[in-house]
Amino acid sequence: MKINYNLKWLAVFILLSAGVFYSCKKDSRASAAVTPGQDTQTVSRAANEVVNAWVTTSDRSKQLEAQTSFNFAADAGTNATTVTVDENTTYQGIDGFGFTLTGGSAGLLNGLGGNQSAVLNELFGTANGQIGISYLRISIGASDLSASDFTYNQTSGDVNMNNFSISQENQDLIPILKKILAINPSIKILACPWTAPTWMKVNTTGNNGYTGGSLNTAYYDAYARYFVKYIQAMQAQGITIDAITPQNEPLNPYNNPSMVMQANEQANFIKNNLGPQLRGAGLNTKIIAYDHNTDRIDYPEAVLADAGANPYVDGSAFHLYSGSISALTDVHNAYPNKNVYFTEQWVGAPSNFGGDLSWHVNTLIIGATRNWSRNVLEWNLAADPNNNPHTPGGCSTCLGGITVSGTSITRNVGYYIIGHAARFVRPGAVRISSNLSGSIQNVAFKNSDGSKVLIALNNGSSAVSFKVKWGAESFTYSLAAGAVATFKWSGTQSSGGTGTGAPIGSTVTLKGFNNQYVSGENGTQAMNCNRPTASAWETFTVVDAGAGKIALRSMGKYVSSENGTQAITCNRTSITDTEKFDWITTADGKVTLRGNNSKFISSENGTQAMTCTRATASGWEAFGINQ
Fold this sequence. Notes:
The chain has about 625 residues and is of the alpha/beta class. The chain is built from nine helices and 37 strands. α8 (about 355-370) runs parallel beside α9. About 55% of the residues are buried.
């Protein structure tokens, strides 16, 4: 591991939707044509569902603290910062939230003595005062947070794996996993190696062959057999491995242990060896590609582009020690039938609690899931007060989710980051629509039992009072700067508003104030709003551009705001920031489109080329949909 500090339709309108992660500040002025919070629907009922809330503040005065419950009420009044939750618009399923149970973490948990049962129940149970971890990542052999280097077969040349053994895990990992499974039998486990057995590697760089190097092509088949033996051995212990990745951080040769595996090597290994051997053994374990940083999405895309490897691959896994979390959406858009996972992010000791809480909740719990991830995993579950154990050269400043000192524990920021999601958003949930508004970053889910969960963070510098609207009902809540809140409620969404979701995947026409249609102009000139009828270049597909943003595609080309520096065009072959827009529905059911420059697209009443330069939205900046 490496260090990093780096959207069925609307009947309600919210002007100040902040449509994407890391977006710039939005224009705060409203015109007469678009009134924040206005609802023209008749309220059909007010069911007054009970809302429960849990809050963590940056100063630790509240730490996942249950608040006094309150009720939804019939929606009334306005609030410039309004989050609209729409359970009728759904996205990806959720597999869970959790940590990597490193070898070191397992050893520390195993040494808790009489306190072990209470700690494990607190970590993996779902009752009051427990955080409900629902997903674990473990290493196949040693990770850099193991006490020493090891693999499960160091017998050179043993290609048939006659000497394969997981006996080294009998001391800590397997006993702890069995106790965890007794608490949560359905917990998902992802396993991945930091290295192959050293005798299978070439060009290693240190630590007796554990560091660096790559897999010798002569041992691809033997290494696939190593995976099969591992999954079967764990299965014999009553431990089901849900998924594997072929290599942790395959582009990082510097960790101990580590091994480099280039994209073409991983594709070849999966299609020729790992995939066929797993299936031949009757194993349904998922194969997830990559497991490294989001700055190199060319890697998983290359694996998925391989026609032989693709059928074996469930999806791609990511870390965020470099790159942007929005890259997960880029991979999803390229391969929408493949899953996306977020599998590792560290907290560096000694930690700035408020800063780490805000960054990790904003970027991962909210950001990764809004960008299609089925899970979020923090790095190590436990470490001792000196951030041990670790291998020589392994991470010496990795702060555990908890610190274990003898038989007592201290709860660190990672505990609360995961705690705000894991207990409340359970496996089988789906992400549902919610808009980002002002400084209130958020993500919403619907559990299989019908309960709704909204996780909200105030990433502003002062307290914010915001509205949460759900159908025809709402509540208002105040959240301190840097604070995180998880809201949970049940019931069925009432009529009177269907959320903020744009019609992703639908083909639409845009009719301007002059009753003419917007045209992409065949991508050969600036766009205009002067067509009396709509044909191919006057129809646009609404594309999910990630984290609440949309893009508009016509005849294979994307509309660009041109950053407001010239008339808008429809000639881009890919989506960058200038092709992303906020989809904002007005009180009369029309739509305004706001670019990354915080300006609105204007039809210019059809008298000249269209622009994205208007600071406020009025008639010329509103468009009828499919009229």
